[in-house]
């Protein structure tokens, strides 16, 4: 059973009289009256992170991916709760010291504060993060407009390449390996964007599962489709060079998730303010396509204008 089918069948009715739940169709809980925004994520070893050989790196990846749920809604994260399940090996004194040090670094970097959590014994390592922010306004899913431009912050694909290198599926020099592995563990989330994003985005989501998968989730209840230009989808110079040297397909690296960049749509007349925001904040923001009528099929075209098939839309939550 797919994630949204599971939610619809077993849990939607439980929230139908709770407006801040947003019908369980968004990344957050939003109580507009109280200005309270909350999100929660769970991470399991072997699924959401490869292993726990670098606990200080893993915890940074987890924290950043969690607070990106608020950032993409136009909300600045303020507090977080962390719960962990592990055993004497995973929660050794050495590992716990590394985790504590990394959390302290993340708190200083993103101006967030630990508020509580829980620990339990388990031979299966997992973490749950609850992120909290305050705002009277957010950017919802399913609010795209016909002819909206589609934008993405940062670059896509570096994290997935890092995962392939960690799995020894792709060989590279030490310098290249270190670059991509760093991108896998330390996503460059856009902490300075939330307030500006509220000024121009009609709808938004963070890219966690993959560009195509998250784009389809962002407009899933609307009778709309999308048109994307593969050529416009931004990738780093490192990834571009490696793709050329290894004769790989760009399309195989742009929609595999773990990017934690902000995907949003905006009216065409917002292009100037978006460009100015990009320059002022030093954030790369790229127009990659357009929202089109649902009567037309969603398409991705290559540099020659031919429709291409994306082999992986992204991570699928299936039970």
SSE topology:
Elements: H1 3-10, H2 12-15, E1 29-31, E2 36-44, H3 55-71, E3 77-86, H4 93-110, E4 113-121, E5 126-134, E6 149-153, H5 158-166, H6 174-185, H7 194-200, E7 203-206, H8 211-218, E8 224-229, H9 237-246, E9 262-266, H10 271-281, E10 285-293, E11 299-301
Parallel strand pairs: 3-4, 8-11
Antiparallel strand pairs: 1-2, 2-5, 3-5, 6-9, 6-10, 7-9, 8-10
Helix pairs in contact: 3-4, 5-6
What do these coordinates show?
The chain has 319 residues and is of the alpha+beta class. Helix content is 33%, strand content 23%. The protein has helices at residues 3-10, 12-15, 55-71, 93-110, 158-166, 174-185, 194-200, 211-218, 237-246, 271-281; strands at residues 29-31, 36-44, 77-86, 113-121, 126-134, 149-153, 203-206, 224-229, 262-266, 285-293, 299-301. The strands form 2 sheets. Strands 7-9-6-10-8-11 form a 6-stranded mixed β-sheet, sandwiched between helices. A 5-stranded mixed β-sheet has the order 1-2-5-3-4, with helices on one face. α4 (93-110) links the parallel β3 and β4. α3 packs parallel to α4 and α5 (158-166) crosses α6 (174-185). The longest helix has 18 residues, at 93-110. The protein is globular. The mean pLDDT is 94.
